[in-house]
């Protein structure tokens, strides 16, 4: 499950956490089993990365900016971990340090399997990774794809601050209930990126790639505990389903 940064922070205000939203998500997840969590950067990681010219599509040799962005993500993650622990979960944080290494992702998948076996909740977040020539941002949506390729979960859920993918972003009733991967990519191509990892356009592209693995992908509101519960219990939440083969 990817918990969107726009859900747990106030993206219009730098370094502003939405702790009540974190608590709502954590309580809704308290009874979930075999859960893998990834959270986004919101107004923490994205604001710092963008102010320093860092993104997922470019490489930077600026170690100071990499450190500042990582620090912002650690601060956000600590706040979220506190809410998860308060709700009775047992989060175990790991990092996505080498995003372009297949061996790294293989080891990460092994770590996740081991954590699930002992009753922990694997947790990671969008991060700064080391790649050839320097650093780049590795977004939470990309992390979901890399783990899904190796773990093949029954579903991947993206919690958003809206009810799903909307045909008209100003109209919550314009929810698109279902997309196939081709339609998701077509829609992504007509959207523009709005943050350091490409915004909703990139999210749809990654969702399409995950769906093509045969994994159901749901994009739902993280402000609706009943839909979070349905999503984690194998039900059909209100939102957008990207259905693969």
Automatic annotation (TrEMBL):
Gene Ontology cellular component terms for the protein in this record: cytosol
Keywords: ATP-binding, Isoprene biosynthesis, Kinase, Nucleotide-binding, Transferase
Residue ranges of domain Aspartate/glutamate/uridylate kinase in the record: 1-220
Membrane among keywords: no
Domain of life: Archaea
Molecular functions (GO terms): ATP binding; isopentenyl phosphate kinase activity; kinase activity
GO BP, sorted A to Z: terpenoid biosynthetic process
Catalytic reactions on record: isopentenyl phosphate + ATP = isopentenyl diphosphate + ADP
EC numbers, comma separated: 2.7.4.26
PANTHER family (alphabetical): GLUTAMATE 5-KINASE, ISOPENTENYL PHOSPHATE KINASE
Similarity annotation: Belongs to the isopentenyl phosphate kinase family.
Name of the protein this chain belongs to: Isopentenyl phosphate kinase
Species classification: Archaea, Nitrososphaerota, Conexivisphaeria, Conexivisphaerales, Conexivisphaeraceae
């Amino acid at each position: 499950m990817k918990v969107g940064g726009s859900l747990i922070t106030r993206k219009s205000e730098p370094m502003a956490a939405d702790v009540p939203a974190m608590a709502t998500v954590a309580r809704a997840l308290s009874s979930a089993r075999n859960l893998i969590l990834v959270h986004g950067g919101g107004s923490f990681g994205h604001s710092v990365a963008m102010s320093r010219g860092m993104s997922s599509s470019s490489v930077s040799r600026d170690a100071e900016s990499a450190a500042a962005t990582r620090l912002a993500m650690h601060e956000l993650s600590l706040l979220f971990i506190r809410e998860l622990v308060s709700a009775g979960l047992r989060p175990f944080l790991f990092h996505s340090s080498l995003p372009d290494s297949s061996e790294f992702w293989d080891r990460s998948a092994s770590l996740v399997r081991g954590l699930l076996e002992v009753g922990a909740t694997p947790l990671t977040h969008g991060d700064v990774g080391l790649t050839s020539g320097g650093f780049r941002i590795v977004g939470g949506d990309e992390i979901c794809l890399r783990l899904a390729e190796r773990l093949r979960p029954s579903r991947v859920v993206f919690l958003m601050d809206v009810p799903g993918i909307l045909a008209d972003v100003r109209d919550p009733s314009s929810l698109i209930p279902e997309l196939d991967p081709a339609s998701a990519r077509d829609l992504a191509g007509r959207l523009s990126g709005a943050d350091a990892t490409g915004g909703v356009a990139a999210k749809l592209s990654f969702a399409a790639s995950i769906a093509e693995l045969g994994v159901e992908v749901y994009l739902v509101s993280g402000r609706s505990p009943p839909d979070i519960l349905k999503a984690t219990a194998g039900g059909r939440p209100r939102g957008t389903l990207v259905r693969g083969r």
